[in-house]
Write a structure and sequence with these properties.
Blueprint: H1 3-12, H2 29-39, H3 41-46, H4 53-62, H5 69-72, E1 78-79, E2 84-85, H6 87-92, E3 109-112, H7 115-121, E4 128-130, H8 135-142, E5 150-155, E6 159-165, E7 177-180, E8 187-193, H9 197-207, H10 211-223, E9 232-234, E10 252-254, H11 262-286, E11 293-297, H12 304-314, E12 318-320, H13 327-339, E13 357-359, H14 363-376
Parallel strand pairs: 5-11
Antiparallel strand pairs: 1-2, 3-4, 5-6, 6-8, 7-8, 9-10, 12-13
Length: 387
């Protein structure tokens, strides 16, 4: 609903994508503030402070007000490279900088659990809370990706390619998000696929078959050499972020025939999401973001075909961490250990641990996907965002 406000914000601050975490987007805070100012000004008039959800939870637990760079960077009120709230950006969004929380490091102690809550829950000792981090940053830290060149691709409801960088390399023209990372001296470049497993869930509803069964059927398409019969699916069910920045885009299926069955639809879905992930990574590396080591996490990683598609398109091995389902919690735990004084922040960018399973590129699959990807590109609009 805040698409018009995105355009207004870009007109006010033409270089906003090179100062904040990316180009204006309807899902980001600053355009929402402008929308509220137009449609619900009383809501803003009543507000004392703008806080992000996890920071509000921490306020309820500790009574202390704070935020940290990884989440603050997603508001478009925060200068990511400088690491501070920006008065000009706040003015463009119509928000007073004094109504924002102080920003501290992700691993810094940000208060203790209130005495009344500690008593209710039976805590014997003081419980310190870390400032914390955004979900993608925490998950990336959780699988040990904290040094430049480390990459983690999440195949969840949405898909996110998180690449760790030692330099701020914004790419707003490709709708890449670039925020501070949760490890000292690093940034996290994020390419986003809006509908990843959500696309497979949609096909599951359409066909009446569970998503896990569909992923298995997609494997049979390769085994039976039916890839040429599969339609092409642009899984833009909720728009396209990276690299087009088109929240208005809708999904497309090209090449339906009477012989199209659930297996072929499932293969096209996995393939279309993999194509979009490859588009994300190519946009990020073209901006100067390094990628040397790759891990894949999320529910979609249970499909080895999906992982093999991505590894083949990127032409690099993809590791499957054994603790991937709890990566975000592990990352938060690592930050908490520093906040509690059990570790030093210098330990956060430790080498990525050994990964029990790695799936390498498949040259034969890469050839098949390469030919189909060229046709897939024809489904994309020619007009891209200009920042």
């Amino acid at each position: 609903r805040a698409i018009e406000e995105c355009a207004a914000l870009l007109e006010k601050v033409p270089d906003i994508g090179h100062r904040t975490n990316g180009a204006p987007d309807p899902g980001i805070t600053a355009p929402k503030l402008l929308w509220l100012a137009r449609h619900e000004p009383h809501s803003l008039d009543r507000a004392m402070l703008l806080m992000l959800p996890k920071d509000y939870v921490r306020l309820a637990l500790t009574g202390d007000v704070a935020s940290e760079p990884t989440d603050a960077g997603g508001t478009e009120l925060f200068d990511v490279a400088a690491g501070r709230w920006d008065a000009d950006l706040c003015a463009a969004a119509g928000w007073d900088k004094s109504r924002l929380p102080p920003v501290i490091d992700t691993w810094q102690a940000a208060g203790n659990v209130r005495a009344a809550l500690a008593e209710r829950w039976g805590f014997r000792n003081k419980v310190t809370l870390a400032a914390g981090a955004g979900d993608n940053m925490a998950a990336t830290i959780g699988v040990g990706a904290a040094r430049p060149g480390d990459g983690v691709i999440t195949i969840g409801t949405s898909g996110v390619a998180c690449l760790v960088d030692g330099t701020f390399h914004p790419a707003p023209d490709k709708a890449v998000l670039t925020s501070a990372h949760a490890a000292p001296g690093t940034f996290l470049s994020m390419g986003v696929v809006m509908s990843a497993t959500a696309s497979l869930d949609w096909v599951a509803r359409l066909t009446g078959k569970p998503a896990a069964e569909l992923a298995g059927l997609a494997e049979t398409v390769l085994q039976e050499d039916r890839t040429g019969d599969a339609p092409l699916f642009l899984p833009a069910l909720t728009g396209i972020r990276t690299p087009l920045g088109r929240p208005d885009m809708t999904g497309r299926i090209h090449g339906l025939r009477p012989s199209t069955d659930p297996a072929l639809l499932a293969f096209a879905t996995l393939e279309g999401v993999a194509f979009q992930i490859a588009d994300c990574v190519e946009a990020q590396t073209a901006a100067g973001v390094p990628l040397e080591r790759l891990a894949i996490v999320g529910g979609g990683a249970r499909s080895r075909l999906w992982v093999r598609m991505i590894a083949s398109l990127l032409d690099r091995p993809a590791g499957l961490p054994d603790q991937a389902p709890v990566a975000a919690a592990l990352g938060a735990g690592r930050l908490a250990r520093v906040a509690a004084g059990l570790d030093d922040a210098i330990a956060l960018p430790a080498p990525m641990p050994s990964i029990p399973e790695t799936i390498g590129p498949d040259p034969t699959l890469a050839d098949r996907l390469g030919n189909r990807r060229r046709r897939f590109q024809d489904l994309l609009p020619e007009d891209r965002i200009e920042q």
